[in-house]
Amino acid sequence: MKFIDRAEIEIEAGSGGDGIVAFRREKYVPAGGPSGGNGGKGGSIYLVAVENLQTLLDFRYEHRFKAENGSRGGPNNRTGANGKDLYLEVPVGTIVYDAQTDEILGDLVQPGQSLLIAAGGKGGLGNQHFLSNRNRAPEYALPGLPGEIKFLRLELKLLAEVGIIGLPNAGKSTLISALSAARPKIADYPFTTLVPNLGVVRKPTGDGTVFADIPGLIEGASQGAGLGHDFLRHIERTRVLLHLIDATSEDAIADYKTIQQELQAYGQGLTERPQILALNKIDAVDRETKDLDALAEQLNHLSHSPVFLISAVTGVGLQPMLQQVWSILDQMNAVEVEEISV
């Protein structure tokens, strides 16, 4: 399935039905009055967030959506049928923009959350509404009003509590496959991962926590280099960053600084997120020629963040690292609960 995280669409709500001009023509009612019914309301358009979608692919080839129009009114004061509302499903985490003004119209972050995006037009009034002492036989009615037309830009920002970041080939995809049931493509060349991968990692309590493997971060990513410009925004919704560094790199310190500079350049408070560092691929390092403990100490001094020595391939060090992740998330949850209670 191709990952599409942006789409532009045009939507048009249904127009209201016209009111009609009609008069009562009943036997034994010599002075039958106006009886033209009102038109039905046009269908509205809603966006609904659903969990079973992970991409905006459905909007790649179909760009225009229209709701049903309301029906005309009928004689004998009968109101026309309302047009059916149209519900468009989008992935959880979709932000809705007005494509013409860039105004944010809604942010769908909860499953089942819906957003009225275009209201249907009101039905026109039939001539029954214009009966008065001065006009006992009105011969006019109102047309239905048109539905709203909008041009929208949809952007998907993945919802994950933990974002796995790092340079290409740091082992992010291998790690998420080791921690969860996710099975991303893995190979030993840069940019193997072309789309973000999501995986659910089970906590000791049995709860699931969503991890996201964010691809394409290289020097200049915040300015559009590589794939990072497209996917940096997916980190915005994460609460904790798990920064993977290749322990076999010739200059792991420079690798760390490169990613930090890109987070700083992108902004959105990414450098303020709690961050855990992990030196990965320690199984491939010759300990006699490279002092990993000293390297971890240097990274800790630079980042003021905990540093773990791990191997995503063999599983070494993964549990202590996960315990730190759970501890940080629990602390953040406790603070949020305290703030709500206050």
Topology:
Elements: E1 6-12, E2 45-50, E3 64-66, E4 86-91, E5 94-98, E6 104-108, E7 114-118, E8 149-156, E9 162-165, H1 172-179, E10 197-202, E11 208-213, H2 228-231, E12 240-246, H3 252-266, E13 275-280, H4 292-303, E14 307-309, H5 318-341
How is this structure best described in words?
The protein has 342 residues and is an alpha/beta fold. 18% of the residues lie in helices and 23% in strands. It is built from five helices and 14 strands. The chain has helices at residues 172-179, 228-231, 252-266, 292-303, 318-341, and strands at residues 6-12, 45-50, 64-66, 86-91, 94-98, 104-108, 114-118, 149-156, 162-165, 197-202, 208-213, 240-246, 275-280, 307-309. The strands form three sheets. A six-stranded mixed beta sheet has the order 10-11-9-12-13-14, sandwiched between helices. It starts with 5 loop residues before the first strand and ends with a helix.
